[in-house]
Amino acid sequence: MDLVATPLLPEGYKVPASRNENPSKRLRRLLASKPYVFGPGVYDPLGAELVMYHGFDAVYFSGYSFAIGHLGTTDMDLYSSVEIADGARRTVAALRKFQLTMAMGDPEKNVAPVHLEIPPVVVDMDAGYGNLFNVQRTTDLYVNAGIAAAHIEDQVMPKRCGHIAGKALIPADEFVGKLRMMRATADDLGHKDFVIIARTDAVSATEVPESKRGMQLAIERGLRYLDSGVPDLLWCEFPTAERAPVEQFSAEIRKRFPKARFAFNYSSSFKWYNEKNPITWDDLGELGVGFIFITLALQHAAGHGMSLLLNDLKQQKEEGYMALQRKEWENGADIPTRSHHHFTGVPYHQHLGHVYGASRLSEDMDEHLEVSKVV
């Protein structure tokens, strides 16, 4: 890992040189060099920072997760383009700041610097939040936020989660227009590497302009979208976890486009553990899948962890919280959030406060507390 200096760190501290690499170029490089790129689904900057800490290739900013984390509701187009673009912008900014704070470590507590790569962020664009001019505006917001890639789907507005019944599709020509607008907008902004993912919900849509339905319509639409020359990755949303439809779709698409790459939603809507022969990520890579993600990965993990704690608090009061702390601080545990001060960068901010002469914000204000008694 090559390290470089930055004016946002004190002299002697460095960050990975890839900090200065365009996120879309980094994603393209990963797609070209790995069997597949995996990105856990997040809904807030904290989750993205944890994904980065644990060294994953990418961050997937799920629309459904954002609906839950931002509004506490479901995935039915209940938020606007500006809202999700701002959520994604804050996430990208948080990752850049997190890289700095981890590279600082905590000199006072002899915590060594940790050098983390910034994963490219892939963001849900739903159905574009309107017509192709809404797509133009949203793409502008996404590109300028530092997002590496976005996917857009061919549903009507307001859209529905791909695994909720009642989906309807816009005409394929209209969707191709949206794809072309995404590409044109990113190119106009000087971001020709911005990665575009085209998604079709044709397999399980109930209202479509065409007479065909199901898999045949999904294949036909997928081919039309690739014929436009715009998508870097093609995503078909499947209604079940069965492997046969995935294999059929990819094989049929690759008859015309042998080098086609796909995106795949290892969806949280399916009970994968109940499958007799679940498709593996390695299997997907062999089928041409370049980007794999779990939409609600961190939302489910957070809901599970928080529910366990809340039940313990209800049943055991203060002992329930102390039990959590024992797990966080046990020998060998790699729980980066156990010290919320370190994780959020208090040492970084205090040291920079000292360097920049803001004594009230600096380490000069040390309270001289016993290390063993505070996080």
CA radius of gyration is 23 Å
Any low-confidence stretches, pLDDT <50, length ≥5?
Answer: none
Report the span from N to C terminus.
Answer: 30 Å
Strand content: 5-15%
**Percent in helix:** 40-55%
- Placed side by side, the strands forming the largest sheet appear as 3-4-5-6-7-8-9-10
Question: What characterizes the major β-sheet?
Answer: 8 strands, parallel, barrel
Structural class: alpha/beta
Any idea what the CATH superfamily is called?
Phosphoenolpyruvate-binding domains
Categorize the overall geometry: globular
**What order do the SSEs take from the amino end to the carboxyl end, as H and E?**
EEHEHEHHEHEHEHEHEHEHHHH
Counted beta strands? 10
Highest CATH level, the class: Alpha Beta
Domain count: the total is 1
**If you consult CATH, what is the topology?**
TIM Barrel
* CATH architecture descriptor: Alpha-Beta Barrel
**Please, how many helices?**
13
What's the rounded overall pLDDT mean? Answer: 92
